[in-house]
Amino acid sequence: MTQQRLRVAFLICLASAAVFACSTPAALFGAESPSAAVDAGSVLSRVIPLPKEAVIAKAAQLKAGDVGVACQVQGEPAVDTAVKALKRFALADGQGKFTIRMILSKDVSKELDADSLGHLRSLPNSDQAYVIRPLPKDAGLLLAANSPVGLLYAARTVEQLVNAAPNVTPTTAINIPLATITDWPDIRERGQWGGDVNRHLDEFSAWKLNVLEYNSGVSVGPDGQATVTIKSEMIADGHRLGVKIVPYILHLEQLARESGEGLRKMTEVTSKPNPSKPLPSDYSPGLCMSSQATRNLIASWFGKVAEIPGVTDMMVWLSEDRSKCYCEKCVQCKEPYELEVQAIVEAFRKVQATHPGVRLRVLLTQGSYPVNDKVLAALPADIGVTYYSGATTYDSSRKPMIYPLLERYAASGRWLGVYPQITSSWRVVFPWTGPEFIKYRATEFASKKLSNVIGYAVPLNFHHQFNVMALAEWSWNSTGRTPEQFARVYALKTGVADPDLFVRWAMIAGDAGWALAESNLMIDAIGRPEALKPLKAADRAKAMTLAQESLQLAKRSNNPDMIGESECVLACFRAAKAANAAADLSRSSLDEPGRKRLAETLDALDAAADTARTRLIEWGERVRAKSGDAALPGRLLDTAFVLLRTCDAARAKAAKLGVTDPRPERRLHKVAQWSAADFAKGQNAVVSVDISSLVPADGGRYQIGFDFIPSNHGVNIQKVSVANDGKAVAVSPDATCEVSHFEPWHEMRLDIPPRKVGERVVLKVDISMISSNIPANHRTCGGTIGLRRAGACPGSPN
Fold first, then answer.
1. Which of 66, 520, 584, 648 has its CA 20 to 30 A from that of 318?
2. Residue 8 · residue 16 · CB < 8 Å
3. What are the tens digits of pLDDT across the range 48-86?
């Protein structure tokens, strides 16, 4: 059988979850490297992502001290990383009895035949392609690639194939699979932006993710000159690990709000508001794209980024808000986004004159979405385009993402990227093991010839390890493993106790989580917690059945992450069912049996809300222990607490119908508020309130709620604490948060300790106004502070 037919046979077997092994006696091979037959499927289950073409029949049985590395390539950081990875188990000083040779294709002579060399150079995304071949007499492995990064990918594959234990010594026995592999990625650029991705460069490199798009932090200094905050050390770290760092400039109309007072004071670059309409309470100027000063400033930012050693690509995000500048020049332009693109291109051309090797990519937005055709037409062919829209790429539905306009654009050969969320939602933080979802997305992107896929995992990669690894898997090899096969590989890689059980659970839990994500139930609740979105009864029932099945499997595993995820999903669907039923019952006057049914329904809602709160926080704390972060993310807390607010609203309605609340202390009760008067002496204030009558002497677990009253300015909640008779006794463990037009509510945890009889307990909230130097006629600011008891409810498993 020819080598190619062996490859095909192997891939067919792998696709059906079968394995094959060669029974050729080891004695037939050279004495230099005693070998044994191997199970190819088991060996390849160590590798993420799965190589495109792989034949493995046997492995060399060696001692680590007999294995060496020989590399001709010098002065390349990515190759240095590759050599270091191999020397974890290749401990010979120089060449050994078994040698792993690393060569660039331009230097290859007799090691690769002409056909193999031509094939390597002709592969898609050939700069990342690599081959692995056994050397004659099984005396080693040849790793060949077209670029240093390709050699790093070859080394990463061998590193995973060998799967050496930590702390290898020269006498440690190791098996090196004698693999014949040809591999290349489907999608040229694969990576992430946002969250904590800068902390995960090592994992990026291990899984062959290769792009991180990161905020350049542009602003202006006190002298009005352009500044950036991204560090050259980060670019260098990425280069060493084969990860391209692409600095981006934030949405242009948001820069004045996000980058500080300096830019807001530059009236020659800031936009003019619509004179015929009152300013919105959250107004901050954008940039005037007709102003030459603005174009010069953008060019200065581009120039500062381009000067950073190692930067090859940079990015600018178009404005999200369609509102235009109303200066005399801008009002004459019919389409603001065409003017914005014109300004960007002019600024970039100035930088290209001194930095000709730097490339630019532009991010589309929900604001540009209606005129994306005009934006694409206005962008020159050498500038890349990335598709983002808050409504259509931050989407976890079962709908295709790349729509016909962009399909045609990519098919024409133009550079197109996309910013998909790879989690349940951009705004809520929810556990979701989604093998079918990630494969669905990656398969679409690969088939539509995208150049770049940048996933968004909020708030941290630590919360979504499965989905991030799945993105790495299928953005490299979109037609390789099935979802079941990847789930098994993930379980093996991460040490899950029962991989078979995990695979069954992941497929069912993934579908249940997909149904929840697609319903938008939780993100809609964040915006309007008083009324959960009605779900079709049949869809909800099907999803609840899946969630119940996944929970039964999870309980067999005794794995807290599996159990917690299934309980969270099931709790959300139960809450939706109860809230919708309660709303139906509350629409009319009720007799006694009706009030009883409503009371039982509200008890079920309380139990579901409490389960979601408890399990999400437990999950968050497990993740925090891994990440080392000091506090839980604010968006996770919002997700954990939002259903409690649904309960508040439902109970308030029920009370008007004569249904008594058995747990009134669990509702959010207003205890204080703030106003602009609290900031009469400065930007900081402290709101204090005696809560002795609301908190028993033995204390307890509470939540402090904050709600924004529409006004010109929001506040930052800096600290929440309690004092007994003036002596501080407890501080909330949760991070500072914003309460404003953008984030209208938030809750923080506070454990109040017991106090002596007669002692007063005072709640103290330290706040600061988000904006400073505010004119007196614009200085409005307001919000309320509430208190609720937190704890288990009857019917919840806590």
1. 520
2. no
3. 999 999 999 999 999 999 999 999 899 999 999 999 999
Alpha-carbon span 488 to 156, nearest angstrom: 20
Query: For residue 665, what are its two tokens?
Result: 């202390």
Alpha-carbon distance of 142 to 134, in angstroms, equals: 6
pTM over 0.85: yes
Give the SS3 label for residue 757: coil
Q: Each residue of 191-231: pLDDT tens digit?
A: 999 989 999 999 999 999 999 999 999 999 988 899 999 99
Question: Would you report the helix, strand and coil content of the chain in percent, each value rounded to 5?
Answer: 40, 20, 35
Inter-residue contact 257 to 284 (CB < 8 Å)? yes
Closest CA to 481 of 464, 419, 491: 491
Crossing angle for the helix pair 560-585 and 537-557, to the nearest 10 degrees: 150
Strands across the sheet with 700-709, in order? 669-675, 782-789, 700-709, 745-752
Task: Measure the CA–CA gap between 496 and 506, rounded to whole angstroms.
Answer: 12
Report CA dihedral (91, 96, 102, 107) to the nearest 10 degrees: 150
Nearby residues of 591 by Cβ (< 8 Å), 6 or more positions away: none
Nearest to 325 by CA among 250, 224, 253: 253
* Burial category of 577 from C-beta neighbours within 10 Å (exposed 0-12, middle 13-18, buried 19 and up): buried
Answer for the pair 187, 452: CB distance below 8 angstroms, yes or no.
Answer: yes
CA distance from start to end of the chain: 61
Measured CA to CA in angstroms, residue 120 lies from 2, 145, 150, 603 at distances of 18, 7, 11, 65
Cis peptide before 459 (omega within 30 of 0): yes
Strands 737-739 and 761-769: unpaired
Q: What is the DSSP string of 332-350?
A: G-S-HHHHHHHHHHHHHHH
Closest alpha carbon to 357 in 322, 394, 327, 314: 314
Residues 6+ apart with CB under 8 A from 308: 228, 230, 232, 235, 247
Q: Going along 492-638, which residue ranges are E strands?
A: none
For the residues of 410-476, what is the DSSP string, one character each? Answer: HHTT--EEE--B-SS-SSS------HHHHHHHHHHHHHTT-SEEEEE-SS-GGGGHHHHHHHHHHHH
716: its two tokens: 């930052």
SS3 track for 44-76? HCCCCCCCCEEEEEEEEEEEHHHEEEEECCCCC
E strand or H helix that includes residue 384: strand 384-387
Residue-wise pLDDT tens digits, 324-376: 899 999 998 889 999 999 999 999 999 999 999 999 999 999 999 999 999 99
**Measured torsion, CA atoms of residues 169, 175, 179, 182, in degrees rounded to the nearest 10:** -40
Residues in the chain: 798
The DSSP bridge partners found for residue 768 are 684, 716
Q: For residues 686 and 743, is the Cβ–Cβ distance under 8 A?
A: no
C-beta separation of 471 from 447 below 8 A: no
| Angstrom distance (rounded) from CA 3 to CA 5 | 5
* 177 vs 39: CA distance, rounded Å: 10
Measured between alpha carbons, how far is 727 from 704 in angstroms, rounded to an integer? 19
- The answer for residues whose C-beta is within 8 angstroms of residue 233's C-beta and 6 or more apart is none
Residue identified by tokens 């508020």 is: 673
* Angle in degrees, CA 392, 394, 398, rounded to 5: 70
Mean pLDDT, rounded, for 465-478: 98
In angstroms, rounded to a whole number, what is the distance separating the alpha carbons of residues 526 and 420?
21
Cβ-contact 365, 320 below 8 angstroms: yes
